[in-house]
Amino acid sequence: MRIGEIIEELELWAPPALQESYDNSGLIVGTKEWESRGVLVALDCLESVLDEAIAKNINLVVAHHPIVFGGLKRFNGVSYIERVVMKAIKHDVAIYAIHTNLDNVLWGVNAKIMELLGIRNHSILSPMKGSLKKFQVYVPLDSVEVVEEAVFAAGGGKISDYEECSFKTEGIGSFKGTDGAQPFIGAVGERACIHEVKLEFIVSAFAAKAIENAARNAHPYEEMAYEWFAVENASTQYGAGAVGELDQEMKFDAFLALVKKAFGTTLKYTPAVKETVKRVAVCGGSGSFLLGAAKGSGSDVFITADYKYHQFFDADGGISIFDVGHFESEQFTIDLIADRLSEKFPRFAVLKTEVNTNPIQYY
Ligand SMILES: [Zn+2]
């Protein structure tokens, strides 16, 4: 299988356009044309992970964190980043990062944390604006089904937990072909009228181009009539963090124990605001920027990582902050990515790294 096919699947799940401005998700080393002999999934593509891939004869590492964030000017092996890039190139191992774009989808990093806590119905904590568009296309009656199917297949018409959403209005379309045109009905220089259906879809802005192309390929006219509209609705699929409710309200201490066990770590936390916990906000990795949204969501607890001393004061009696550690909060992202790839490519070797890449130890 080509590496490009694996990347296509990953990017359908977590479009690269969703990554934050400071990020460097995507194909960092290698080309999409390479034939892949298997994938090794890790949180961090360190030299030890690369060595593992080479030893296992695998030529693609899919990591959550990009090994390269900023520009590299020299390749003399002084920094660990240069050494990884040099070794990957030398051994023809591709490195792909799926980072903040995987943080910013409903079924990404934070969904896995929610699963770990036994929370089934979660939603995005801070929904992204500007990620939806409306697509309208005018189709002759007997081609409605084929155009509609093409748009659905390209990912159009998904709203929350619903798929294949569309709206149809019938009307009369008119057109007159001029010199050089080959009209679908009628003749050049004559106005033709035809029964048409206006098809409307809500689509992800990140799939807009693919959807337009799919509709055009399925459409019978020489010139497809269509419009794009900006939509103000916040997306239910894209954005940062997640919020959800426990099935059963829990005593604060019992919830602390649950979190400690789930993440397998000691944790830092600010005192309980209430005796019990029901609503929980989470953000894998550094999530302090979401404290306002977590408080605004009415959550009792905010589980995240990378809190600094002074930032803990911001809890300010409004929520209890749990800092479970960066690596710990994201450790199950490895399972998340590996499971997704195994499910999509059942006969392809998808391995999880055996290297613990957490740079921090606890005493
Ligand atoms: Zn992270």
Mean pLDDT: 95
Shape: globular
Give the helix level as a range of percent: 25-40%
Question: What structural class do you assign from the helix and strand content?
Answer: alpha/beta
- Architecture per CATH nomenclature, i.e. the level-2 architecture of the largest domain: 3-Layer(aba) Sandwich
What is the count of β-strands?
Answer: 15
Order of helices and strands: HEEHEHEHHEEHEEHEEHEEHEHEHHE
Radius of gyration over C-alpha positions, nearest whole angstrom: 25 Å
Distance between the termini: 44 Å
Topology:
Layout: H1 3-13, E1 26-29, E2 39-44, H2 47-55, E3 60-65, H3 80-90, E4 94-97, H4 100-103, H5 109-116, E5 122-127, E6 132-140, H6 144-153, E7 167-176, E8 191-204, H7 208-218, E9 226-230, E10 239-251, H8 252-263, E11 268-269, E12 276-286, H9 291-296, E13 301-305, H10 309-312, E14 320-323, H11 326-330, H12 333-344, E15 350-352
Parallel strand pairs: 2-3, 2-15, 3-4, 12-13, 13-14
Antiparallel strand pairs: 1-4, 5-10, 6-8, 6-9, 7-8, 10-12, 11-14
Helix pairs in contact: 6-7
The site of zinc ion (ZN) has 4 residues, from helix 11.
